[in-house]
Design goal:
This protein is an alpha+beta fold. It is 23% helix and 33% strand. It has six helices and 18 strands.
Length: 325
């Protein structure tokens, strides 16, 4: 059974103690709709789903769970049977935990890089208006957006998404950054150019990123949503990591900003949709056509940033990176 096109990213959960900063960041700067605010959690909407981004109380300052939505029960049974064949353990989440995530039911397993992967079919919806500072977000058949991560075991991460969710390779990028060649593979699960991107350093396999994902992407409906959000992020003092630019492969106009928890958020507009009848994977030698220039407040800060990434990369050699397969 081929399940390509019947899989999409559904929601993301992160852990943080910086609730006030997250409200400023997600609601006031990026334009997401604040749906719920309690002492233990925040949740934000992009569309009719009750929850798309959830922040739980805790000290990790990192992404902890990733929800993956399947089209129907038949697809769910197919994915679970694939787990069974490979001896991968999973369990059904409790009804209370399902409601907390804004879904009717879910199944959970330990995914690549220790991200708790949660698969579900039916979401919980709301008829409340979407009170957002942007014109809207594109989700539809493409899902919430995409996630990108660095990995010391890229082949295993790619195989995981291909073997269990029928992901397809869209294209690759290789680019020299700070003296290191970075290879990035872009995997699609549906019409979206990519739902998962996996980057690794060529040669000595390092992981210089502290967080489990490097960035999560949300797609807005209007170019002005990108520029206005970019300005709000600067006005509120959030660190814009990469200026507005146009990507080479998916043709998305976007910028990158550091979240209160450290991983980045890419806010973008108008990426291409893949025509399965004509598309052929290619390799690009640059990430952007124009823009996406790094913004560092000073040469000293830039040097410390590079040293921090290098040191984290060296530290990653001392620990194993979990992979289910």
């Amino acid at each position: 059974m081929n399940i390509f096109g019947k899989v999409k990213i559904g929601y993301l959960v992160a852990e943080s103690n910086k609730f006030d900063e997250w409200i400023d960041f997600a609601q006031k700067c990026l334009g997401l709709c604040l749906a719920e605010h309690t002492e233990q959690s925040l949740s934000f909407r992009l569309d009719e789903f009750q929850k798309r981004l959830i922040i739980t109380k805790g000290s990790q300052e990192d992404v902890t769970h990733l929800g993956v939505q399947l089209a129907d029960e038949a697809v769910l049974n197919e994915v679970l049977s694939r787990f069974d064949v490979r001896g991968i353990e999973y369990q059904q989440g409790s009804p209370v935990d399902a409601e907390f995530r804004g879904v009717k039911a879910f199944w959970t397993l330990r995914g690549p890089k220790d991200i708790q992967l949660e698969i579900f079919v039916d979401e919980l919806r709301t008829e409340l208006p979407l009170e957002a500072k942007v014109s809207g977000f594109y989700t539809d058949a493409s899902g919430m957006g995409h996630v990108a991560m660095t990995s010391r075991k890229p082949e295993k991460v790619i195989r995981f998404w291909q073997e269990f969710f029928d992901a397809r390779l869209t294209d690759r990028i290789e680019q020299k950054i700070s003296g290191v060649i970075l290879d990035v593979s872009f995997l699609r699960l549906n019409e979206r150019h990519h739902s998962v991107a996996i980057a690794h350093t060529r040669g000595l396999s390092l992981d210089p990123i502290r967080t489990r994902i490097q960035h999560v992407n949300f797609q807005v409906l209007d170019l002005e949503d990108v520029t206005a959000s970019y300005q709000r992020c600067k006005d509120y003092g959030f660190h814009v990591v990469w200026d507005v630019g146009l990507h080479t492969n998916d043709r998305e106009v976007s910028f990158y900003v550091a979240s209160p928890s450290g991983f980045e958020v890419e806010l973008g507009w108008n990426p291409i949709k893949i025509d399965e009848m004509t598309w052929k994977p290619t390799k690009h030698t640059s990430i952007s056509v124009w823009g996406h220039k790094p913004r560092q407040p000073s040469a000293v800060h830039g040097l410390m940033h590079e040293l921090g990434n290098f040191n984290r990369g060296l530290q990653s050699l001392k620990r194993d990176e979990y992979s289910p397969i």
